[in-house]
Write a structure and sequence with these properties.
The protein is of the alpha+beta class. Helices cover 59% and strands 12% of the residues. A hairpin with a 2-residue loop joins strand 7 and strand 8. The chain is elongated.
Amino acid sequence: MESINPTVLFIGVEGLAYLVILSLTLKRRGFAEWPVRLLVIYLATASLWCVGQAIARLDGVDAAPPHLSWTILTLGLPVLAFLFLLLTRFVLRLEGEGWGWWIAGALWLGAMAVLGFNLLHLPDTIEWGNGWAVQYDVLAFTFVPVLGWGSFMGGATTLTLLAYRRIRQPLHRNRIKYWALALGATIAGAATALLGQPALGGSFYLLGTFAAAYVLFTYHLPDVRQMARGLGSTLTSALLAAVVYTTGFLLTLYAFQNVPGYTPLLAGLTLALVLVLLFDPILRRVRQVVDRLFFARRYDSGQTLREYSASISNILDLERLGTVAVGLLSEALDIRNGSLFVVHYAQDDEDSIVFHLRSVGGMGPEVPSGRLSAASPVADYLLRRHRPLTQYDVDLTPAFQDVPKAERKWLQDMDMDVYVPIYAQGEWIGLLALGPKASGDRYFESDLELLSTLADQTAVALENARLFDDVKARSVEIELLNDELTTANRELARLDQAKTDFIGVASHELRTPLTNIRGYNDILHGMIESDSLQKETALELTQGVGKGVQRLHEIVNTMFDVSRIDTATLDINPLPTPVAPMIKAAINGLTEALAERKQRLTTEGLEELPTMIVDNKRIEQVFNELIQNAIKFTPDGGHIWIGGRLLNAELPPPEQEIEFIVADEGIGIAVEDKERIFQKFYRVGELMLHSTSKTKFKGAGPGLGLTVVKGIVETHGGRIWVESPGHDEENCPGSAFHILLPVLARVSKTCSSEGVAAARAGMEH
């Protein structure tokens, strides 16, 4: 009976071992999760790879060249390397689909297919320049596969190193160290197999695969750093103990060798006694020094608790409490950053409880406040377990896989390592979020127990500070409400006075034209009865009556416009309108007033402005009112200026706007009056200064003109404001009204879109 080649047997056993790991994986985790599926594919491929090599190495199967076993080896390595790269991306929690690597894998697979089937019809020997030549079999079944394997494993190595440098959390870095061990064993196995030792290389590869599966499905891995420290400490202590005991034994031999009656037994008993009395305490001290060298500095839990409680007990300011609490923890645990959060309960739109976590102080970079829903696994853990929660658990354990993306991003952006809930009388009131330790160590169980105790100590201080903060907030709120109430009372008083003034002004405004009409009518009636009425006199009297009627008509129309502005029913009829003629029409109506006051009015830039789609009558009314105001509040002989400019000329007409300015050399407007002048009934000056004349200096009206102006401008989709250095009747600093109007009036709810569309079509035509 022929014996089986040990290499074949060993490789076959390795293939079966992959199947064992595969069955354990399916039994433990099922086939639902994507990383499990990927690992199963990897294990199945590795098993087939080993079995294929074993079969190919049986007598009579392997052919040359190329050898079938070598072909299976080289073609399988890059496939496994690509799958290992995908597993690496999952272990390192890299976001995105990794399409670049998928494309690289597809290109490599395509290149292998082309070379494997020689679709390019390459010769057996491929010659390069300068006398270089390569065998086709070497190129297709060695060079290209090894290059693919090196590229994929190099990618996995690069991603692992970059992730280790980027991540600060010790538990995550510990997991990456384990993955680096799996990666190293896998690379060593492949390299050993390629160097002609398939059995030994397969063993390394199997070890790397087992380590990879262990990392994927074991969340809380033993701490590599602590194990290395413990081993180093033990070896160092053992070495020092050996040196001490050896030295003591040699010294004892030297001291007793000349003593009469010397025996080794006596020397041994003497050495043991001396070591018990003298050297054992020295060795304990040596071990303490070694532990201090290998392990992070220790803290006294009792002393830390006493200092912490004494330091925070009387703090009532939340920000100071957060700074002091985190600062003390930083000194004890050597942490880099941290923050104290206050928890506020609220309800969302669906009447579910939402926890708002407000950052109130700490150390390190400022962290944003956040929120957790009641259904969040994070909130559920902190509410039920009353134990610290690590970021590592949130990132990796299945219990937290359903954490909402927004909450997960908030937690990751804070760059914290552990979250310690704070409770008062069973209610969750705060959270201590602490960053990684400066030493690079993890938070050990003793650290977490200390943090839980310190959180209990923080609860009373946090509750007191929170209540004090609420009292301060209520006090500020009441203060603001009092200020608002005072302002509202002043405004109500002003409105009441304004209405009283309006009644006086309106009665005066209406009485003046009515008196004129009645006077002219009485004169006309008397002259008719005495038969002394002449044509010229009759014409003069009827003109006076007409002026009074016109004035009454203007007052009533103004009140009616204000009413429609208030109810958003002011109608506009936009039509294509040239700018210069429209403003000139407004000026023409006030030519006599300008002449009477000896004032000069000039315009600039109006002729260059494009045609607008506006209600020309309404815009003319705007300029008429503004020019009339400028005449009233500018001394005799003053100057009034009207200008305009096109904004956003490079944009299409719907996006263009025109800014108009009506400026004067008048008495100006006080800073506090700049907004009020557009309010109803508001008038600058006293009621006694009122006059129905449109030209008298500082003559006041009913206080509705600028209200109507603002309503018309805003109905067109524009806005109006005033600029003035202030009110000064001696130096006359002047004022400038700015009007911003769209070139194409924007449709409002009081203006039909059909009318605007027709106007735009007419303008384009």
